[in-house]
Design a protein that fits this description.
By secondary structure, the protein is an alpha+beta fold. It has helices at residues 3-16, 54-61, 94-107, 165-175, and strands at 19-25, 31-37, 39-41, 44-50, 64-70, 80-90, 119-120, 123-124, 136-150, 158-162. The strands form two sheets. Strands 1, 2, 3, 4, 5, 6, 9 and 10 form an eight-stranded antiparallel β-sheet that branches. It is globular.
């Protein structure tokens, strides 16, 4: 399989799923894995985390994360999935935050119908379509290495793909991307 086909499979798998397991590094050295919802913009992944969560503290201290995305298959040779290593950072740009929130509502349209948030004793009582930045942060995860599982190519088959800033540059160039939604043509 060519690298272009593998990267298309990565994008397809990222687009098909809504939940991932993210592993962070705790202060005591133990890994911590948490299941979270996510959205992606091409190869970039986004997820929200509470500011008072262990995941948030772990990432602030060490931005390296590992992620697994996949689902069960009724036939072993239908198994496909991704594991990746990347770096997470807090998104502070308002245009990027709004862009990720719009992606979230597209992937999770059921969030649009949620009533306004209710806070009791300082705790949010239910999900909201766009979380408040006072209690929640948005992480952008930039992948560095993908392991792509594709058992249709043989039981246990995986391809290891190094992901560089150039891949992101090319992807962003292809989209003519700007966080504020005003697409600009990229260089040829």
């Amino acid at each position: 399989m060519t690298m272009a086909r593998i990267k298309r499979l990565i994008i397809r798998l990222l687009n098909e799923h809504r939940v991932m397991t993210i592993a962070t590094n705790r202060l005591d050295g133990w890994p911590q894995a948490t299941i979270v919802g996510y959205v992606n913009d091409g190869f970039l992944l986004y997820c929200f985390a509470a500011r008072n969560s262990q995941k948030y503290a772990n990432i602030l201290r060490d931005p390296r994360v590992s992620i697994a995305i996949g689902s069960d298959a009724s036939q072993p040779l239908d198994i496909k999935g991704i594991s990746l290593a990347g770096k997470a950072c807090v998104v502070t740009d308002q245009c990027e935050l709004s862009h990720a929130a719009a992606l979230r509502l597209k992937r999770y349209p059921e969030y649009a119908a949620l009533p306004p948030p209710v806070v009791r004793d300082g705790d949010l009582q239910h999900l909201v379509s766009e979380p408040s930045p006072s209690g929640v942060v948005l992480f952008r995860i930039v992948p560095e290495i993908f392991s792509v599982l594709d058992y249709s190519r043989g039981f246990g088959h995986s391809d290891l793909v190094s992901f560089s800033e150039r891949d992101l540059d090319l992807h962003m160039q292809t989209l003519g991307h700007r966080w504020d939604g005003n697409a600009q043509p990229g260089p040829p």
